[in-house]
Design a protein that fits this description.
FAD/NAD(P)-binding domain; 26% strand; alpha+beta; binds flavin-adenine dinucleotide
């Protein structure tokens, strides 16, 4: 049977949109105190821009997406300069709860109905290899970022009940993913949670997102990447052979290619259909290593709004969720105590022996797409300009995929999944 074409993530672009980059009101990406900022590792050496530049590739954005893309471009022997208007690792990245999952927000069984089974299988497998690739790269570079391989437990909820989970587990098994259905006693043994069962998967991980991004940037700087901040890119003009960027300081950068790794600001600029900015909340408990569940797996629910949690190296629980479909920053920030209290209560119901008092609480913008898939690739109508929209609960995994895809695109090499994630 012919596969249904993807019905979301479609966008209308034109090169005029890129000139309008200065008209985008900077988003307040996060507020409160993310746990990772107490010790996010050594900051990379960054300098202001004091001259015009000519480079192979200009990367805009000093978060995890920019860091992974820059690493991949350096691996290809390219000469790279990176710019951030707020400073490196100051955007959404340090607000992340950094569960590195191959499991996409949209269950495989429902994504298959929306975009066709074969495309859904490719998306899930690409996500699985994204986590593997990221693990390998962290090991190659010797980054000390509290990376730990973890299993994950996917609990029943109002999106998939016990029968829905059975169907989801069967769909995953058919395409060979490392997921199985576990029963109540097994779930209880792994997690202490009393529910009818769960999907238990191998191949996920956790990390400290600030240490990871800063480590990548320090490594990139050592290997010759030029890191500049604060530099606001206010205009992007794609020409016949090169792209010209203008900065708020009056400098000009001539680049063979440009990568927009500007995080959630991209939705404002490119206005893709099916992608939107919402609000999300997170908290970290005090350290309590003796009270944690035995497997220390990642835990998340098939619910909307959902609850998810993980542990940290010093024995805390980081939990989040309560996503709400608005982007009003003031409203988001006022709601921190209420939303975090609700996350704490839900966590207590799930794991009654935990101390669920918040030692850290924060809120942030969150980008989601209607399919749970990212948008990665060349901006239609703007040759040599590439964008990374690694939105959803797998943002970091998607950034790892984007690094590989954008490296290939800039080198003129094909990528088997370019059509799956393309913009427009
Ligand atoms: C609370 C929360 C929990 C999350 N949990 C998870 C999770 O468990 N797992 C997961 O994989 N993902 C998770 N995510 C998503 C993940 O954190 C994001 O996908 C990721 O951090 C985005 O990184 P980025 O580099 O694209 O964006 P950012 O880190 O925001 O970096 C973008 C940078 O671009 C700069 N910039 C923008 N415009 C310009 C311009 N014109 N000129 C110069 N600089 C510019 C900004 O200043 C910013 O520093 C979570 C996010 C949040 C908020």
């Amino acid at each position: 049977m012919a596969e249904a074409p993807p019905r979301s993530g479609r966008a209308k672009f034109n090169r005029a949109a890129l000139h309008a980059i200065d008209a985008i009101e900077p988003l307040k990406l996060r507020t409160g105190m993310p746990f990772w900022l107490i010790d996010g590792g050594r900051a990379p050496a960054v300098t202001p821009l004091d001259a015009d530049l000519k480079v192979d590739v200009a990367v805009i954005g000093g978060g995890i997406s920019g860091a992974l893309v820059t690493d991949a471009l350096l691996q290809a022997g390219l000469n790279v300069a990176v710019f951030d208007r707020a400073g490196f690792v100051r955007g959404s990245t340090p607000a992340s709860t950094a569960m590195l999952q191959f499991e996409i927000d949209q269950p495989l069984s429902t994504l298959g109905q929306r975009i066709g089974l074969a495309r859904a299988a490719r998306a899930w497998w690409r996500s699985a290899s994204g986590v593997t690739r990221l693990h390998a790269r962290i090991a190659d570079l010797g980054l000390r970022c509290d990376f730990r391989e973890r299993h994950s437990a996917y609990l029943p909820g109002n999106v998939l009940d016990a029968a829905g989970l059975r169907c989801e587990a069967a769909a995953r098994e058919r395409i060979g993913l490392r997921s199985i259905l576990i029963d109540r006693p097994t779930l209880k043994g792994f997690t202490g949670i009393d529910k009818p069962g769960a999907i238990w998967s191998a191949g996920s991980a956790e990390v400290d997102p600030a240490k990871l991004a800063r480590g990548l940037w320090r490594s990139a700087a050592k290997r010759g990447a030029m890191l500049h901040a604060p530099v606001d890119i206010i205009d992007i003009a794609p020409g016949k052979r090169r792209v010209t960027l203008s900065t708020d300081t009056g400098h000009s950068i001539s680049a063979g290619s440009v990568v927009l790794a500007t995080g959630y600001a991209l939705t404002k600029l490119l206005k893709p259909r099916g992608y939107r900015i919402i609000s999300t909340w997170a908290m970290a408990t005090p350290p309590q290593p003796e009270a944690l569940w035995p497997s220390r797996c990642l835990i998340w629910e098939a619910s909307d709004p959902y609850l998810y949690c993980r542990t940290t190296r010093d024995g805390r629980v980081v939990a989040g969720g309560e996503d709400a479909a608005f982007e009003d920053e003031a409203k988001r920030d006022t709601l921190i105590p209420t939303k975090v209290a609700r996350i704490g209560r839900k966590l207590k119901r799930l794991l009654p022996t935990l101390d669920t008092a918040p030692a850290f609480a924060w809120a942030g913008c969150f980008g989601e797409s209607s399919t749970g898939l990212p948008a990665i690739g060349e901006v239609p109508g703007a040759p040599r300009c590439y964008a990374v929209m690694g939105f959803g609960g797998n943002g970091i995994t998607f950034s790892a995929i984007a690094a590989e895809m954008i490296q290939r695109a800039i080198l003129g090499l094909p990528d088997p999944d370019a059509d799956l994630f393309r913009l427009g």
